[in-house]
Amino acid sequence: MAIKKKFPYRAALVACNGSCHANQETKCQYGCIGCGKCVENCKFDAIFLNENGVAQVIEEKCIACGKCVRECPQNIIHIHACDNFIVVKCSNKDKGKDARSVCPVSCLGCGICERICTAEAVHVVDNCAVIQEEYCLGCGMCAVKCPRNVILDKRGVLT
Fold first, then answer.
1. CATH numbers and ranges of domains, the chain
2. Spatial separation of the C-alpha atoms in residues 93 and 50, rounded to whole Å
3. Pairing verdict, β 86-88 and 122-125
4. pTM of the full predicted structure?
5. How far is residue 109's CA from residue 95's CA, in Å, rounded to a whole number?
6. What is the Cα–Cα distance from 152 to 36, expressed in whole angstroms?
7. pLDDT per residue over 32-83, tens digit each?
8. Residues 6+ apart with CB under 8 A from 137
9. Residue 48: beta bridge partners?
10. What is the DSSP string of 58-98?
11. How far is CA 42 from CA 15, 28, 53, in A?
């Protein structure tokens, strides 16, 4: 099936790193639980469960219909602008040590990203980095400075 995407190009983004194994008994109460509801409800085969059981989106196939966003019981799937390559791949709201104990790749809420962002596009909200895409310049300094590699450059250039 040929998929015609509308400009500006948008796609779903799963705000979970996916490095941990997902399951419904996982210690991280904020991450993907691998339930597959997003996969079942995507008519475009744009989302799948990776080798760890964590949802991943194929941007080229996603038309940003939002069905997966509505179906996700964890509320960790968001629609984002495809031209913004800098993304936060975490939804953990726990503080530093607690976040680290449940997920080896979670945001600690340290605020380095917030301090380094000259566009004031990154903020730590509930102990987790959030990027306001409308302000982000895409420079990637937040991704470069993130000590936990939670903020990523989807192109793979900076991270």
1. 1-83 (3.30.70.20), 88-154 (3.30.70.20)
2. 23
3. unpaired
4. 0.86
5. 7
6. 24
7. 999 999 999 999 999 999 988 899 999 999 999 999 999 999 999 999 998 8
8. 118, 119, 121
9. 56
10. -TTT-----HHHHH-TT--EEEEETT--EEE-----S-HHH
11. 17, 25, 17
